[in-house]
Amino acid sequence: MIRLYNRPFLVLLLALCITLPSLAQAPAEQPKALLWEISGKGLKQPSYLLGTIHAICPENFNLTDKVKSRLEKSERLSLEVDMDAPNFMVELQQAALLPKGSTLRGFFSEKDYALLANHFKKTMEIDLQQLDRMKPFMLHSMLLSQLTECQAVSYEQSLMELAQKQGKEVIGLETVSEQLSAIDQMPAEVQTSMLTHMVGNMEEARQNYRNMVQLYLQQDLAGLDKLSREDYNSEEYQVYEQAFLVGRNKRWIPVMEREAHIQPTFFAVGAGHLTGKDGLLELLRSKGYTVLPVQ
Predict the structure, then answer these.
(1) Quick one: CA dihedral 74, 80, 83, 84, positive or negative?
(2) Cα distances (angstroms) measured from residue 127 to each of 94, 121, 134, 154, 272
(3) DSSP 8-state class, residue 242
(4) Out of 158, 188, 258, 274, which could bridge 51 as a Cys pair, Cβ 3.0 to 4.6 Å?
(5) Are 36 and 43 in contact (CB under 8 A)?
(6) Which residues are paired to 77 by β-bridges?
(7) Nearest to 61 by CA among 205, 163, 170, 213
C-alpha cells in the first residue's frame, strides 16, 4: 500500500513530487506504456505525452530511444512548469514561504513538532527552527534523498537539457504559482499529517517507493493505479487527489490543445496525471483526439 504521505513531494525543480495515478477506475486492459501519441481533431502532426517519475535513482533512469526520437520530431517540449523560465526560482522561493505572522511550529502539536525536530536534527543536522517560515509541504522536498536512498535524477531535467541541445523551446502547462496554489488548497492538517506520518514510518515509505519504481519501470500504469487504490476511502487522499491531480488535469487540457495545434509538442508530466477517468489520456479522448501508446 502506498499511503498519502508517500505520494506527493512538492514539485521543486519538478524532481520532488512523486505522483501516482488517480484512484478513479482506469480503463480496462490499460496498455503498458508511458509514451503516448496524440493525433486527430485537426492536428496536422501528432504530439506526444510522456508519463514521468519525478525522482528516480540513476541506475534505474532510462531515457529510451523512442522517447528521444519523438522529442526530436516535436517542435517544443512542455513540462508541468517551465523550469527554464528566468523567474522560476524567484517564484518558487516566494510561494514556499508562509504568510507573515504564521510559523511552521504553529501547524503542529507539541508531540509532532518534537518528532520532526528530532528527525531533522538527527538525519540532517538541521535545527527545525531555521525552517520556521517554510510551508509544511515544502519540508517533504528536504526528505527526498532519505526516501530514494540515492541522489535522485529527474526525467524533466534530462528532457529539458536534451531539448535545449536540439534548439527547442521549453514551455510549461502552468506557472510555479499555479502549481503551488494546488498545495495551498489542501488544508494545513492534511499537509502536516502527511509529513509526520512519513517521518514516523520512513522504512515503510522507502519500501512503498521501491514498489512504485518497479511498476514504473515495467510501464505498468494500471499496476500503479491498483497499488494506490487501497487509500481511496481516505478523506485526506481525496482532498489531495482533487487539488493536485484532477483539478490540474482539467486546467491543462485546453493548454495542451492550444499548444498541440500551434506546433507538434512533446508533453512530459508525472505519470499520475495520465490514468483514470479524470486522467489526461481519457480527457484528451473525450475531446475527440486519438491517443495511442507508442510501441
Answers:
(1) positive
(2) 21, 6, 13, 28, 34
(3) I
(4) 274
(5) no
(6) 170, 266
(7) 213
Task: Count CB-CB contacts under 10 A for residue 241.
Answer: 27
Pairwise CA distance, residues 114 & 128, whole Å: 9
> Cα-flanking dihedrals φ and ψ of residue 287, to 5°?
-85, -5
147 in Cβ contact with 213 (< 8 Å): no
- Pairwise CA distance, residues 246 & 190, whole Å: 17
CA distance 197 to 6: 9
88 backbone φψ class: left, alpha, beta (φ>0; ψ -120 to 50): alpha
Within its chain, how far is the Cα of 85 from the centroid? 19
State whether residue 39 is helix, strand or coil: strand
Cα(271)–Cα(66) distance, integer angstroms: 17
167: left (phi over 0), alpha (psi -120 to 50) or beta: left
In this structure, the strands spanning 35-39 and 76-81 are unpaired
Cell readout for 278 is: 479524470
What is the per-residue pLDDT across 179-192, written as a single tens digit (0 to 9) for each?
878 777 777 787 78
Give the amino acid at 267. F
Backbone angles phi, psi at 248, to 5 degrees: -70, -40
Angle of helix 188-200 relative to helix 202-217, nearest 10 degrees, comes to 100
Cell 534530462, residue? 158
pLDDT tens string 270-284:
998 998 889 999 999
Average pLDDT, the chain: 84
Residue with cell 481533431: 41
Joined together, the cell numbers standing for residue 90 give 524567484
Alpha helices in 138-187, H assignment, sequence order:
139-142, 144-148, 155-165, 176-184
Q: What is the pLDDT of residue 236?
A: 61
